Structures are given as structure tokens and as C-alpha cells.
Amino acid sequence: MRLKLLSFLAIAFFSYANCCAQIDPTLLKRLPKDTVQNILNMDALYNRPALNISKTPISIGGYLEMNWQKLTTDGVSEGHQFQARRLSIFMSSAISKRVKFLSEIEFEDGGKEIAIEFASVDIEFDPLINLRAGIILNPIGSFNQNHDGPKWEFTDRPISSTQMLPATFSNAGAGLFGKKYTKNWMFGYEAYLSGSFDNSIIENTENKTFLPAAKNNPERFEEINSGEPLFTGKIALRNNKIGELGISYMGGIYNKFQDDGIIIDKKRHVAVFALDFNTTLPKIKTFITTEFAWIYVDVPETYSQQFGNKQKGGFIDIVQPILRRSILGWEKATLNVACRLEYVDWNVGKFKETGTNIGEDLWSIMPAISFRPSSQTVIRLNYRYLKQRDIFSNPPSVTDGFNLGISTYF
Predict the structure, then answer these.
(1) pLDDT digits (tens, 9 = 90+) for 223-263
(2) Distance CA 44, CA 46 (A)
(3) Which helix (H) or strand (E) holds 232?
(4) Could you tell me the keywords of this UniProt record (predicted)?
(5) What CA–CA distances, in Å, run from 110 to 70, 79, 169?
(6) 359-391 tens-digit pLDDT
(7) Is the predicted pLDDT of residue 10 greater than 60, yes or no?
């Protein structure tokens, strides 16, 4: 599968390069990301810069993430590390009037992992009623859809979005979405039925309830373990003067409860609720974004208490521009200071025997400095300080260190 995908991309790239070589360079133009102010987090898939060949319906773009880091955990370090985090390629096409195709193919860790993160056809019947079908990004919270590296001041993705929620969780599915504008107010919704989780969320190498384990199962793109689809829904409300609030839900049956018509287990549900909010303080231009989620999993009673049936966690990012001016020939360069606060509890509850709290949690603080020669490129220096406790709430392990990275659209 990987070889076929690489072959396809190579053919597409060289065909594209050959096409460009035969076209007057003046016909190539950069399409800016959507400049319409009435946008929501759900518009992140459209709100990306791309390169368009004049008089063709196809555009192409992408982004790159690369960083250096040196981290220490309880005095032990693996030393200096250079990491080719990811290369994402966007391809889209305006097929016909109100019919669009969008896709994102991501190469992680230097090509170690290759995935089609998003590939869908959008058909607009009305601004409030659009059909989307294909490989969709389940809109739980805001980060899952709005995850492009150049948009963030931090080299690492939020822990709650990657190690509690399954970041960039995509499945084969279909559904409806739409938006409505009224003066300063905007309303948007999304509702999809798609592939789902499987037993790996409680049967994994982490030895705990771990939703991201489901991403390792490529079979979810062609069959549903339980035979019943996952539902994901989100509503968002935005006021241009206040900010955007999103409320989302994702839930369904994850286990294989019957085989050839024979009931072998009861239906076991997984449910995720998430709240997200972002705003910009008008006078000082401080940007604040936050997301918090709660997870409920029906874990079999035969499992030990290290497999939690409740989880919670989230993050808050605060970004403050301190300098906006022409720097070294970049006319609209920006220098920011930022900070991310994070918390995750993988096992909410108390031990049945003792009544004491179950551990398995962490908190982290990450101050940062970032420089943007343009809005599409960011150079960022982060320092992480993280404390994590095991299930028995023993004294926490401490991880700290620096990350320096660059991320850019192209």
C-alpha cells in the first residue's frame, strides 16, 4: 500500500513539474488563504494557501515541520535530536459549480508513516446544507481539523489532542455541514456518520484506555469493528467582537458484540464531549485558544482498574505579539511570546479498595518565543516543563528541555 501511494505521488509530482515547465511562469500564482473574515474552525480545510495554475481548476500546497530538541526525564537524556516531524501535501479542485474536492496526504517522521488524512467531495446545495463524503476529519474539539503546524507557536501538538484524543482522527464517512451569517454573528454545524473505534482502545501496548490506538488500524477505512457507525457532531457560534465557541460530541459502539449473528458481548459505548473557545483581545491583540474534553468508555468489568472508564484533559494557548514591523526586509514580520498550559488525566476516579485517587495524570507548562517573517512561516523556540504521575500517584517524573523548530506553508 505504501509503495503504491509513493508511486502515485511521484507520478503526480513529476507530471505537475512537467506541466509547470511548459507553462509561462507568469500564469502560476499563489492563492492566499481565505481572506473572508467570516470563518470558523470548521473552515480550516479551506483556509490554506495554495498554488494555482491559471485557467485550471487544480491547486496544490502543503506545509513542512522540522525541529531540534533536547529533553531530560529525571536526569536522563537521549541528547540532541533532529526530527523531520511531517510533510503534508494539499491537493484540491473545483470540479464544477458548487462541487469541490479537497485532500491532504501526510508523511510523518521522514516517511515512516504515510496517511491520507483527508479526501472528500463537498457538494453545496445551500450555504446551510452541504454534503461531504470521503475520508473525513472527525470534528471533535477544534484542533483535530485546525492542526496545520504553521498556525501554531509550539513545536509539539497539544498532549490532550494527541495522547488522550486521537489527533487528526480521520475515517471513511459522510455527512452534512453548513454555516449562517447574521451581522456580527456566525453559526456553523457539522454532522457525520463514519468509521469508528475498535477494541484497541482498551487492548494496546499502553496498557490503559487509549483512544489514539485506533489510528493504528487501517481496516477502519473499509470496515467497522462493531458494524455500527460512529456519530460526530459539532455546533459553533462566533461573534466577531467576542470569539468562537464550539461544542462537539463523538460517540458510538466500539466492540465487536456479535459474530455471524450470534451475540458474543454486550454493546460497549465510547463517548467524547469537547468544548473549544478562541478569541483575540482587541486592544493588545492577545490571542487565546483553549480546548477541553471528557471521555467515557464502557470498559469490561473483567479489566483491572488501570483501564479507566473516564478521562479528561485540555490545553490553553496564550499568544502575545510584542513586535510588528519591517525586520530584515520582511515587511510584516511579527515577534511573539506565548505560553501553553496543559493537563491530562487518563483515569478519573478512585480505587475501589482504598478510596484514594487513581493517578495516571500529567500537567505541563510550555513558554515560547516565535518569529514570523510572514503569517505563513514560523520559527519557534519552546521550553517544556512537565510532571507526570503513575497510576499509584507516586512522586512524579519530571521532563524538561528545549525545542527549536520551523514550520512553513509552501
Answers:
(1) 999 999 999 999 999 999 999 999 999 999 999 999 888 99
(2) 5
(3) strand 230-239
(4) Signal
(5) 19, 20, 20
(6) 999 999 999 999 999 999 999 999 999 999 999
(7) no
CB atoms within 10 A of CB 205: 9
Q: Are 399 and 73 in contact (CB under 8 A)?
A: yes
| Domain range 24-409, its CATH number among 2.40.160.10, 3.40.50.2300, 2.120.10.10, 2.30.30.30 | 2.40.160.10
DSSP state of 161: I
Would you call 328 exposed, middle or buried from its count of C-beta atoms within 10 A (0-12, 13-18, 19+)?
exposed
Amino acid in position 379: I
Closest Cα to residue 360, out of 286, 308, 301? 308
Q: Which residues pair with 75 in a beta bridge?
A: none
Residue 229 contacts residue 173 (beta carbons within 8 Å): yes
Domain ranges of the chain: 24-409
Nearest to 150 by CA among 29, 36, 48: 48
Kindly state the cell numbers that stand for 308.
479507566
How far is Cα 105 from Cα 111, in angstroms, rounded to an integer? 11
pLDDT of residue 53: 67
Length of the chain: 410
CA atoms within 13 A on the CB side of 227: 8
Strand partners, 175: 132, 192
Angle at 89 between CA 83 and CA 95, to 5 degrees: 170
For position 38, what pLDDT does the model report?
A: 66
